[in-house]
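Appendix B. Raw example, untouched.
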Amino acid sequence: MHFIKSLGILALSCGALAGNLTDLDIKVTHEIPASECKIKATDGDVVSVHYSGSLVGSDEVFDSSYSRGVPISFELGSGRVIQGWDQGILGMCIGEKRELRIPSNLGYGARGAGAVIPPNADLFFETTLVDIRRRDEL
């Protein structure tokens, strides 16, 4: 009986990690007042973002630029990062913080990412936009 109960708990836990989100969920945790936001991130900008990432339903961080002290930089909207990032960073101001809950179809989908992110996993990221460089400034 104890074994069957344990299997049920394990199945529920795995279900929490296996693609239950259907839409990108963005929560602004530190907003920059409009009067202080000189530019917002748009497609084609090269943005620098600090982040920590975990699976939805888990407190274990699988990757963090904060711990390395170096943000990731990429061209927004170019497909160089997962779709949930391209969509979730869009419109941010420098210094703004957002929490992104990304459904698996906007993350790594059925392929997952190595041993770190299983197939069909929903992802959670805490992000801070550090810098924006416009395409014409590059």
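End of appendix B.
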